[in-house]
Amino acid sequence: MMDKEQIQTVKLVEKISSILSPYFIVIVGLYLSDDSFLIGFVLVIVGILSLLKISLQDIMALVNKAKGAIGGKNS
Question: What residue ranges are annotated as transmembrane (predicted)?
Answer without folding.
Answer: 12-31, 37-56
